[in-house]
Amino acid sequence: MLTKSIVKNSFYGFCMALADSVPGVSGGTVAFIMGFYDDFIGSIHSMVFGSLKEKKRAFLYLIKLGAGWVIGMALAVLLLSSLFESHIYAVSSLFIGLVAGSFPVILREEKTAVKSWRQGLPCGVAGMVIVTGITWLNGNIPAGSMDLGKPSVLLFVRLFLIGLVAISAMFLPGISGSTLLLIMGAYLPVIAAIRATLSLDLAYIPALFFFGLGILAGAATVVKGIRICLEKYRPQAIYAILGMMAGSFYAIIVGPTTLEARQAAMDLHTFQPVACLAGGLLVALMEIMKERGKKNGTRNS
Question: Environment class of residue 124 by beta-carbon count within 10 Å: exposed (0-12), middle (13-18) or buried (19+)?
């Protein structure tokens, strides 16, 4: 049973990493589609605010999830990056199918919340506007830049705030943290600083330290807010997430324009229906596996 749990949660982390590596897609979207978003947010919340027992349980869960994420991201960087570059339209079409196929599943599982459409609809519209707006800014506003090797109080404050905002996006479906970093002019400087530090150039450590503090602060505060919304304002939270997922269609379509080797946005000619259908079937397969897991759990208990 323990081995099965390790494999399942590591697979979840693996899928999140693959999503994070595709332009326009976030790991939070995959977590929500695959049905473990509440567990993911709840575990991070417990790590910060929970009791010692809750921290231990959350730590074990996040370790399993994190192991899969590291493997998935390493695979994406080392082996799949060229595939994403050369077949980005197939990958983007696949994720459009994944997101589209997930809507009926979520609507069925969140029947009670969906019925409160008067409360939730404005939040859904807001979620869609936020994701499409961020994506539009990424493609139309020139990003500034910064030199992380020249420390200053202003730079440290800026990096702290950037880290706080970027990690917040990682927990929200439809919003890509890397996209926000690009908009704020921090993506390439942070990547360059990490590479330099790994090469034992210590000049970048102070800047990365404050960026890391922002990430920790963002993880603690945003997860608390998300947890409260899911527990006390479920309809608004579900509609907001659905809106963000709807907005991610636009992010996926223009995703090819954000690649290092820039390509045209996906259109009807480059859209691949077979890959899209495969994405929808993948959601159906995951739903079947999830239902079987629930039945087996009920029998074992």
Answer: buried
